[in-house]
Amino acid sequence: MFEVLSGGAQTTVQDMGRSGRYRYAICPSGAQDNFSFRVGNILLKNSENAAALEMTVIGPRMRVQEDTVIAFTGADLAPKINGEEVDLWKTIRVKAGDIISFGQLRSGCRSYLCVAGGVDVPLVFGSRSTGTLNKIGGYKGRKLEKSDVIKTFKPEFPLHEIEGRSLPRKYIPSFLTEAKLRIIPGGYDYRLTEESFTEFFRTTWTVALNSNRVAYYLNGPKLGFKPAKQPFGAGSNPSNVVDIAYPIGSIQVPGGEHPVLLLNDGVTGGGFAIIGTVVRADLDIAAQLKPGDRIVFESIGIQEALEIRKEKADKISAIKDITDYPF
Amino acid sequence: MPNPGLPRYGFAGDEYIFVQVGHDMDLNINFQIQATCKAIMAEGIPGMLEAYPANTSYLVHYNPDEIEPDVLLKKIQKIGVRSEEFVPFDSRLIEIPILYNDPWSIECAKAFASNHQDPSVTNIEYVARINRMTVSEFIMAQTGLQYFMTMFRFLPGTQCFFPMVERSKAFSCPTYVVPRQWTPDRILNMGGVFIGITAHDRQPGGYQLLGRSPAPVYDAERRLVDLKESILLNPGDRIKLRSIEMDEYKALRASVEAGEYRFKIIKQTFEPLRYFEDRENYLRSLEERLRDV
Fold first, then answer.
1. B235 cis-preceded (ω within 30 degrees of 0)
2. CB contact under 8 A, A242 and B12
3. Do B13 and A235 touch (CB under 8 A)?
4. Could you tell me the maximum CA-CA distance found in chain A, to the nearest angstrom?
5. Model pTM?
6. pLDDT tens digits for range B91-133
7. CB-CB: which of B15, B154, B174 is closest to A25?
8. Interface residue A268 vs chain B (CB under 8 A)
9. Is the ipTM beyond the 0.90 threshold?
């Protein structure tokens, strides 16, 4: 159990998200950096899907209310126990009364606090994740605030068996301020002019300030659409189509400006043409970009996308092996 | 009318297949999409997570660890071709009472007056005017239609309805110039030819505000019998709006709050071919049974 002394910028309960209900306009939510989140649970010998806290840029301040083991993964927010800095990617024993706090962000954007047993909030549509836009799940459907009390499930293993476990250095991802995201062009990409389609991949885009768990908005040049008669039932702008369902990771360009990369808490459908979709594993990388950071998109096909997917799966398997993960 | 180059099948990242079936909104296309998505779901393909019908397209979410993307795509193509034949399908007709030009829509419109094309009139007055009708003519026209639910979009339980009328007779309106930050729940709203009913209190939106339903169409707490699955409607269902006055609104609202309200719902088999043959008479015949409920 933890008592929240201050909530930080945006601290939410997340697991791997809700699936299978997207067609009812229920977005998945879930940890944005799936890799870092899962590694935290693997180190703690939790179920991979055990709920954790996702912290964004400015961490919370919390009081530990009963002895447990925790792990910090993801962005380096300079985590501290009782004012002393501690390692990320390592399981740490904490005692009742200990104070968890954070310093200045050093790298990345989203950090995870995983806890033995996992965070105990009710399942909503099969997941404990907080939807920041639809306000479902998590802790009362919202980010954490002062005086909230976060309960945890009883760990499956005795604490002494799970403390002091760390991730070998070679598996620790480094979070840079410029990332390459790989995307399969498609959807309505044919509606962009050829010059704009080329320019999209040539541009170094900047993550805009209003970016969040719903979407990243990107700053860069204006893109143009081919002149065409608007379809019946579509909005009047050439970037509009008759309403579609948006894939998570898809990119739309409303009015030709500020491409929008849709993330886990996104709206599930609407009337903007999508021009391509970022592969799942690269959304982990996107999650660690903060406003001001830069993105270059690389166009790939499905075979390459599957290889990227396999690389991540192999890395997770190797980590499970090396840490004697029991599940 | 076949669309050249369509349907267009494509991979969207490594977990989705996006299929564009048409350009223009058309029930011809949407009936096919509904049938295809239902068939994909029914097939029980391992690794296929869900098929999400939209207006002129659909999205398939799958797990590529369990099925080869190319294999799934080919299966979907086959199902798509099979669904080009119009076969009858289950479709419920649901009556939704609406208090048009209600005080909550007016209050919300006032709060966002600067976001609107013409804040000197209420939204429904604006919509009626640009369709060259009086408000009562507009209400008469709209309540005379059936609307077809094509998809969920945006936020949980938010549905999209398309008018079941020839294109030349469909009235329409622009959306707000600048979207609103909030809208009350249960508000009948319209953008283009589409309508919806807000599912959440204070949800953002940009459609014109026309009226309010005493009963919700989405309830996460599942307080009404008709909302035991949280949602009232599904794609493939139809609605008919009934204009009510404030007295009835209040009485129905009280019954909703007591947890006793029941919607008028009739289960029907919808025959697309009969619909295309003689739209008006066919819809009329389907509506007749509403009177007996």
1. no
2. no
3. no
4. 68
5. 0.96
6. 999 999 999 999 999 999 999 999 999 999 999 999 999 999 9
7. B154
8. yes
9. yes
